[in-house]
Amino acid sequence: MPAFFRAVLHSYSMLFFSQHRGLAALLLLATWAHPWAGAAGLAAAALAVGGARLGGFSREYTDLGAYSFNALLVGLALPLYFAPSAGLAALVGLGAGLALLLSVALGGWLGGRGLPFLSLPFILVMWLLLLASRQLPLVPAEAGGVYWLNDAYALGGPHLANAARWATEADWPPPAATYLRALSAVLLQDSPWAGLLVALGLLWHSRIAFSLSVLAFGGAWGLALLAGAGVGGVGGVGAYDLGANYLMAAVAVGGVFALPSLGSYGWSLLSLPVTAVLLAAAEALLRPLGPAGLPALSLPYCLTSLLFLYVLLLREKPGNWLVLTPLQRYSPEANLYAHLAGLGRRAAALAPVPLALPFLGEWRCTQGYADGGPTHQGPWGQALDFAITDKEGQTYEGSGRTLSDFYCYDKPVLAPADGTVEEVVQHLPDNAIGEVDTRQNWGNTVVLRHAPGLYSQLSHLRAYSVRVRPGQAVRRGEVLASCGSSGRSPEPHLHFQLQATPAIGSPTLAYPLAHFLASDGSLKGSESIGNKPDCLCQSALTLHTATVPRTGELVRPPQPQAQLSQALHLPPGQRLAVQLASAPEAPPQVWEVFTDAYNARYLRCHYTGAVAYFEQDEAVFQCTAYYGSRQAWLYWFYLAAYRVPLCYLPQPRAVPLPLSVVRRPWLGWLQDVVAPFFQFVQPVFTLKWLGPDAGPAARQLQLGSRVVVSYFGQKQVVQEAELTIADGALTSLTARRGAQQLALTFAAANS
Fold first, then answer.
1. Which residue spans traverse the membrane (predicted)?
2. C-beta of residue 628 within 8 angstroms of C-beta of residue 613
């Protein structure tokens, strides 16, 4: 499908924060319950997409439909206020243009504060046009909604008019009819049949969003009964307010901006009385503006959603009961499953400041976070101590009576991240073994500033070994000093902590390391190298991401495999030509690397439009999201290279996958319904190295991967694949899904 038409279609699905084309198609069809509105909405969306592309605005937001869904709403609303005429057509064009400009402007202003603009452009444009129309005799404001039945009679006689009337006035059970009319009202319609299409599309797109809409409808109904207002009747809550305000606010705060959970469902219910108050206040404030006043439209929904989201953004201690969506994947299920698969922790490893271990080689964590150790207590509990041990677990060789007997003494201490030197102390002498200096508790110390409110402190350094000075900029991995035994240190070791202020000895701050290799510290499989401390064989090591070492663990920085790192280093602008191995003469598909507004990288297939988001640093290549057909070649690659450690690990641990990989619809839908409360489906990705040599000098590598879904004691193999790398480049992918097989080759594509 051409990109222009995809963007127009996405204008419809974005009304429900979605990129689901099935939902978009059903919404498009539902808008034609009122033909003039359907035509005007489609024209307005197309004009906004065209204007955004011609105006050079963000291509990403344009393709998502983010710049055009408000224009769509304007087009759908105008025929309800104005009779069909040339003046109405002019208003549709003008309204689409204004909605586009306001979407871009409000997107820039609110987006910088972490807030969405929702349907605020639609509201502002409608108010402007309704006020201006009173001064424009060519477009008098009238109840245009009555005209389409007359037009239907003129086009098809009484049969077509009766069919059109039946579509809007057929008898339905009252609760069902009101719920469906409320859903249709999101599209400015008033038809249970249109609402049925919306309900089916919403259910198809997201079982969680559908359940939230039903929950909100029941809650709003109960709230109206308690207030003595009723629902749907005269003097009660109207279908439009139910759908465009109550239901939309509940879905937004409970399933879109917050990860679906028991807490988010409660948050969704809490939004209902807030919406009711804002609706009553908005109607009272807008009623005096002009002879007929101005409609509140979806203003209460916008205010409720922005209020609830902004309050969550201001929390100092977010907790786990209500978690904000870290990266929008345009589906409550996709957002939740990415979080359950640990992709939120992966994001923590990359921002705002990725920290590395402050040393080379393998050290043991001798005291961890608040583990009851002798010094890491109370406000200073979130700190780490490290020393080097041998195969017997000893920290020294020989008698251990002198500083030089200790393995870590005089070893280099490195900057854990880029920063600026804030404090330096290096004049204090090292203690004799077994003695401590309680007056100068921290001993020789370097404090680095990495970001506002984020400092690192490295203490107990060797006297006069510091190589940096206050105010000096340092890079991650730069040597700062040498490990010593100054301060409260009975034997040489390194103290490492994060803190919010620059003062030496400030209270500690819990903060994860980006990556490190660790073992449980057992001595099995270890071997001694000369008189140096033993190094555990690599098969005992596990790559850890966005966490901190535990007491007793042996840890070391990861050492990337050069060929693998080069092959999976995909900078923006890189293009890959991908071909079927069996058809080398056929035109290739071109995959190109782009970045979005948040600097997240993604591969986009120009042929299918499929998109695979990924992150890559010195330790891991990680796919984070996929949008597009599951038959696209890019999806095969997404599953084959979902998470690839860039250092050699003979047996990388299995990692969870988002539940979106489940191929059996009934199983996926059943899990979706209960996903906010518990998970019984477990998709897992495993990786192994194939071939005899994967050392640092290896020029050809082969990785085998397997995706398995477990449920109710059964296991389903989704995909098995082999990825080949030669001379620092991707060369081929062979994959199997049941009876399906795919063999691809990769090459650099011409620009």
1. 64-82, 89-109, 115-132, 208-231, 243-262, 292-313
2. no
- Dist. CA 612–CA 30, nearest whole Å: 31
Q: pLDDT, tens digit, for every residue of 330-360?
A: 899 988 888 887 765 544 444 478 899 999 9
Q: Using CA atoms, how far apart are residues 161 and 464, in angstroms rounded to an integer?
A: 94
What is the spatial distance between Cα 133 and Cα 690, in angstroms, rounded to a whole number?
72
Q: Say if residues 125 and 72 touch (Cβ distance below 8 Å).
A: no
Q: Give the tokens for residue 173.
A: 């059970």
0.85 surpassed by pTM? no
Contact assessment for residue 100 and residue 52, using Cβ atoms and an 8 Å cutoff: yes
Structural domains of the chain, with CATH: 1-142 (1.10.3430.10), 173-332 (1.10.3430.10), 363-556 (2.70.70.10), 562-589+643-748 (no CATH)
Query: Pick from 30, 77, 33: which is nearest to 167 by CA?
Result: 33
C-beta of residue 730 within 8 angstroms of C-beta of residue 576: yes
The DSSP-derived string for 569-628 is ---TT-EEEEEETT-TTSPPEEEEEEE-TT--EEEEETTT--EEEEEE-SSEEEEEEEES
Query: Residue 730 forms beta bridges with which residues?
Result: 725
Backbone angles phi, psi at 213, to 5 degrees: -65, -40
649, 388, 370: which is closest to 510 by C-alpha? 370
Give the CA diameter of the chain.
107
- What are the tens digits of pLDDT across the range 163-220? 655 555 556 677 888 899 999 999 999 888 899 999 999 999 999 999 999 999 999 9
The angle, 0 to 180 degrees and rounded to 10, between the axes of the packed helices 207-226 and 174-185 is 110
Please write down the long-range contacts of 724-732, taking CB distance under 8 Å and 24 or more positions apart.
724/700, 725/563, 725/564, 725/567, 725/700, 725/701, 726/563, 726/699, 726/700, 726/701, 727/563, 727/699, 727/700, 728/562, 728/563, 728/566, 728/567, 729/566, 729/567, 730/567, 730/568, 730/576, 732/581
Residue carrying structure tokens 């060797």: 462
